[in-house]
Amino acid sequence: MRFEELAKASGLPEEQYSRTLMSLLTGKAIDICIQLPAHELDNYSNVKEALLRQYGATQDTYRKKFYTERPRQEDDPLIFISNMTIWFDRWISLSKIENSYENLREHVIIDAITHAHSEDIQSFIIERQPKDIQTLTQIVRQYRAAYPNKPIKQSAEENFICYTKETRTPRFSRPEKKPICTNCNFKGHYASQCKTRDIECSYCHLKGHYANECRKKQNNLSDRSKEKQASRYQPQSTSNQNYGNQNKFYNRKPRSEHTTMTIVTKSKGLEYYPGLVGNQKVEVIRDTGSTSVVVHSKFVKTHQYTGKYVAATAFNGTVSNLPVAEINITTPFYSGDVEALVSDNLPVNLLIGNIKGVRDCTQRDLQDWSKAIKVSQECNAVITRSMTKEQVESDNLQNESNSNQQNDNPTKETTDQETTNQNEMTSNSNIPPEFNNEEFKEEQKKDPTLSRLYKKAQTNINPESNNEPYLDNGMLMKRSKNKNKIIEQIVVPQTYRKTIIESGHSKPFSGHMAVSRTKKRILQHFYWPSITKDVKKFVSTCHICQMKGPKGRHTQAPLQTVELTDKPFQKVAIDIIGPIPIESARKHKYILTLVDTCTRWPEAIPLVNITAIDITRALSEIFSRTGLPEVILSDRGGQFTAEITKAFMDMYKIRMKFTTAYHPQSNGLCERMNSSLKQIISKIANDNPQNWDLLIPAALFAYRESQQETTET
After folding, report:
1. 148 alpha-carbon distance from chain centroid
2. At CB < 8 A and 24+ separation, what contacts does 277-281 make?
3. Number of domains into which the chain is organized
4. CA distances from 183 to 197, 204, 211 (A)
5. Inter-residue long-range contacts of 445-454, CB under 8 Å, 24+ positions, other chains counted
6. Basic and acidic residues compositional bias: what residue ranges (predicted)?
7. For residue 621, what is the domain's CATH number?
8. What is the domain extent for residue 120?
């Protein structure tokens, strides 16, 4: 193909193609031409066809390459795309079809139909070489009439060839039939070769396994067990169903492709940690074999159910439909909103699986968490008792005052008072217990940062609108929408903001989360205009987060600009390409490259080894043509930093400069030239890969002749 392009470019007549080509051939190729009849030597088409056939370059060869070749990780995408284009063109060219869409379409359809059949019928079709679909139909009918009992469908493993990245050799072939052992029923050996033929189970007295592997024993033990066994959940489908079906079981084999989640049996050997589901205390267990969260139904409220169901498959194949609920959890492993499966038969309160965002806690972290929760519970118990006493006294005084002010309609007044108290308690239930409602309302009015929201709330005609402030019994509130849920937020004045942030970040149940999670937790109940800025400032100055946070993250030093040179070969950059996967016929595996930083002139020399002696010899060869540079830039390879190389540079008064370790971009000019040179060599050496080292001068010529974008020369 390349010979034809060069011949056309040079204006060579077609009748001279054959003689010119034979004058360039050597070795096996010229022997093939000599064996041809004399009258065919002047016919270029006959010579070309004989050479391609002898070297296996048939249309079937290129068709297989086109369909089976895969891109390699180390190659540039352009190389693979170019190869695919070349293989397709050669496949179609050797098929000798006319250059039209209809002929190409018919050829591709015939090829697909042919290779969809079994190998026998493929050979039958290829021998007859059908030119159109009608002829192909007649050939297939003839075969089926002659061999009615033979299969015509291609098996899944037939003609399946996959090439490895390094060797490009077939990795899979048609599997051979393996013997089956009649003792252990495993493939690959006979019963006389079976290693388990002398093993006998002490439980069932059968040969081939030990007692601890006996399935009969395991089944009997599982039947006698009264504890709740481990279950495996596989999310399979979701649908809107009634909650009454959640305990319905039916037998079904689990599908292996679905993710699993295991609920362990509650036993004394497991570790349980305190946590929260909403505001309810729970026992939490971490299961690394799970992929979901499971919670007991007693901790889930009716409005938290999403209406979805998940088919949960047990280890023995039984399946139960479990409802899904959205809950808020606070645990040492995960804190925040999460979708959980709800079960009545869960042996623990809450199970945390391998969900997104779960943390891996050390034993020390879990101990600190448990201690902090214990101290917090003791403090909360004292605060709760004192606050309960004050609340009872306040309620008694309020009841006495209300009884003295009753009029002729006591029932209505009582109802109105109860409704007012209930609304106030509902709207302000998110205020921390240490805050006083009346003082909190006064601070809202006096806070200058809330004046705009307060005025807007006083003029708000529709309190039900989202993202708008409103007044609820004198309390400044804000209603927001988050994931189809309406959240009522209390607007916090400056006096109480630090306390709110501490509760959402520094408390034991808060877990010292990052800025985003802390902010989301606070926004579930509270709001103020500068909440993002305040939370970020508080978290960044948290003493515990600074001590326990990740260490060793240092910013990278800024890169400096490379000094420019105005003299050719005053400064050069060198690098090494290799090892190249295909060793040349002269044992070359590496290429030493050099590029002038001023003129961008490239040099390249193939090498067998890359020792310091080989490098200095190659540099001497280059410098004999270009002259000695003042500075050489290279990476920190051992061959460049060796004492021999240093002595060589000192002898010629050359200063060596090295790039920063693991930063090849410091020598980007040479690296870019290496990439271009590798692409050029891989393309021009496609048909003769063993002689790629002989094509380096041609590659350098092509690179030097192209215009440089930086120098425009």
Report:
1. 50
2. 277/327, 277/328, 277/329, 277/349, 277/350, 278/327, 278/328
3. 4
4. 7, 15, 17
5. 446/493, 447/493, 447/494, 447/495, 449/493, 449/494, 449/528, 449/529, 449/530, 450/476, 450/491, 450/493, 450/528, 450/529, 453/478, 453/491, 453/529
6. 438-449
7. 3.30.420.10
8. 2-146
Who has greater pLDDT, 145 or 650? 650
Which phi and psi (to 5°) does residue 661 adopt?
A: -60, 140
pLDDT band at 117 (very low <50, low <70, confident <90, very high): confident
Task: Assess contact for 497 and 435: CB atoms under 8 A.
Answer: no
**Is there a domain that residue 508 lies in?**
yes
- The verdict on 25 and 132 lying in the same domain is yes
User: Which domain-ending residue is among 373, 394, 420?
Assistant: 373
Q: Is residue 181 part of a domain?
A: no
Q: Are residues 509 and 576 in the same domain?
A: no
CB 326: neighbour CB atoms within 10 A? 15
The DSSP-derived string for 217-278 is HHHHHHHH--SPPPEEE---------GGGTT-EEE-PPPTTS--EEEPPP-TTS--EEEEET
Q: CA-to-CA distance for 18 and 43, rounded, in angstroms? A: 6
Any idea what the CATH number is for the domain that residue 521 is in?
1.10.340.70
d(CA 266, CA 229): 9
- What residues have CB less than 8 Å from 575, skipping those under 6 apart? 592, 593, 634, 635, 667, 670, 671, 674
DSSP assignment of 383-425 equals: HHHHHHHHHHHHHHHHHHHHHHT--S-HHHHHHHHHHHHHHHH
Give pairs for 51-54: CB < 8 Å, separation 24+.
Answer: 52/94, 54/28
Q: What is the 3-state secondary structure (H, E, C) of 595-611?
A: EECCCCCEEEEEECCCC
Please state whether beta strands 335-343 and 318-330 pair in parallel, antiparallel, or not at all (unpaired).
Answer: antiparallel
> Quick count: other Cβ atoms within 10 Å of Cβ 41?
15
Counts for the chain of helices (H) and strands (E), in that order: 23, 19
Looking up tokens 């050359």 gives 654
Whether residue 602 is found in the same domain as residue 506: no
Residues 538 and 582 in one domain: no
Q: What's the CA gap between 531 and 545, in Å, rounded? A: 19
Task: Among 373, 402, 418, give the residue marking a domain's end.
Answer: 373
**Contact in structure between 42 and 18 (CB atoms under 8 Å):** yes
pLDDT tens readout for residues 553-611: 666 667 667 677 888 999 999 999 989 988 998 999 999 999 998 888 999 999 999 99
What residue type is assigned to position 49 of the chain?
A: E
Q: Report how far residue 660's alpha carbon sits from residue 635's, in angstroms, rounded to the nearest whole number.
A: 8
Asked if residue 335 and residue 242 are part of one domain, the reply reads yes
pLDDT interval class at 705 (50, 70, 90): confident
Q: Which residues pair with 338 in a beta bridge?
A: 327
At 56, give phi and psi (nearest 5°). Answer: 75, 15
Give CB contacts under 8 A, 24+ apart, made by 513-520: 513/335, 514/539, 515/539, 515/540, 517/335, 517/336, 520/336
Please indicate, yes or no, if residue 630 is contained in any of the structural domains.
Answer: yes
Nearest one of 229, 356, 355 to 293, comparing CA atoms: 355
The number of beta carbons lying within 10 Å of the beta carbon of residue 389 is 10
Residue 609 and residue 474 share a domain: no
Give the predicted TM-score (pTM) of the model: 0.30
Looking at the structure, tell me whether residues 663 and 575 fall in a common domain.
Answer: yes
